[in-house]
Amino acid sequence: MSIASVVNQWFVVNGRDLPWRRAGFSAWGTLVSEIMLQQTPVARVIPRLEEWLQRWPNPAALAAVPSGEAVRAWNRLGYPRRALYLHAAALTITERHAGVVPRDVSQLLALPGVGDYTARAVAVFAYGDRHPVVDTNVRRVIARAIDGNAEAGPPSTRRDLAAMEALLPADTEGARLFNAGAMELGAIVCTARAPRCDSCPLAEVCAWRAGDYPPYSGLRKAVQKKFEGSDRQVRGLILAELRTADVPVLATELDTVWADDVQRTRALAGLLADGLVVGSPSAGYELPS
Ligand code: SF4
Predict the structure, then answer these.
(1) In a 3-state reduction of DSSP, which class is residue 278?
(2) What are 73-107's pLDDT values in tens digits?
(3) φ and ψ at 285, to 5 degrees?
(4) Which of 54, 108, 205, 255 holds its CA 20 to 30 A away from the CA of 140?
(5) Does a structural domain hold residue 107?
């Protein structure tokens, strides 16, 4: 039996029941969920996604409100530039695609904030087309089960897509299932820190396991900086302050969110440069309209 068949059989029985996997979930919902999931865990995404789709059930509904509303509703999902991207994508979809999320990968890639993973994920999971979809979890499963390496090494779109394509069933339904199944296997069984090989459907064929788990000796991507005390934390605190305000917040009021003047000023300058905040020292600061 092929690796894809084994994973697909396992996935049909063991895959989690997640909102974006349910029948009838819209292409817009798939796009929103994939962008939310890019850097935020599933458990934190689900409640925010439900609120978001209730309020803005289609791209036109989101495009009709100021971008600051999207940033406000993003709340504490982290990396809030994604809210601005989603708003900009909603505008593009409304203006250029008659309000319908495109199906074509090149049109999806042209949307703000949509990269190789998200474009293919929408084409496959929302429209059922056949493409390889590769995220961190898929890369780890392939690295271990096929290549015999503990880790995947730095990403390469061309190489990663080719590796997944080589395993993908020819039929669209089998391919869709395998894309979702490989991702799920990496998320809940072949996890980065504690793979549960005893529960893994690939245990008998896994190259890394067969080689007695050799340690990783390849290149590593740069380790992400600690959140506590980082500019990211200060940016989040400033945004939290602005989210709760109905009028522009003066710079002196922002002084209270973080004591270090240099770091607070730098974080505010970054938010202004990214378009997540608008205003000036004299007028005060607010979310964009
Ligand atoms: S056998 Fe272990 S290491 Fe190999 S794919 Fe399964 S969980 Fe990952």
Answers:
(1) strand
(2) 998 888 899 999 999 999 999 999 999 999 999 99
(3) -125, 145
(4) 108
(5) yes
Last residue of a domain, one of 99, 125, 151: 125
> Is residue 50 annotated as part of the catalytic site, yes or no?
no
User: Which residue's CA is minimally distant from atom 2 of ligand 1?
Assistant: 197
Which residues in 108-147 are b (16+ Cβ under 10 Å) and which e? beebbbbebbbbbbbbbbbbebbbbbbbebbbbbbbbbbe
Cα(197) to ligand 1 centroid in Å equals: 5
| Ligand 1 neighbour 206 (Cβ under 6 A) | yes
The span from the CA of 21 to the CA of 252, in Å, is 47
Say if ligand 1 is within 6 A of residue 6 CB.
Answer: no
Pick the atom of ligand 1 nearest to 196's CA: 7
Q: Are residues 30 and 61 in the same domain?
A: yes
**What was the pLDDT predicted at 222?**
67
Asked if residue 153 and residue 10 are part of one domain, the reply reads yes
Cut 0.90: pTM above it? no
145 and 274 housed in the same domain? no
In this structure, is residue 21 part of a structural domain? no
The per-residue pLDDT for range 18-69, each reduced to its tens digit, is 999 999 999 999 999 999 998 899 999 999 999 999 999 999 999 999 999 9
Q: How many CB atoms lie within 10 A of CB 258?
A: 20
For residue 23, report the distance from its CA to the centre of ligand 1, in Å: 30
Domain CATH code at residue 80: 1.10.340.30
Same domain? 4 vs 146: yes
Residue 149 CA to ligand 1 center (angstroms) comes to 11
Distance 20 CA to ligand 1 centre (A): 26
CB-ligand 1 contact for 208 (6 Å cutoff): yes
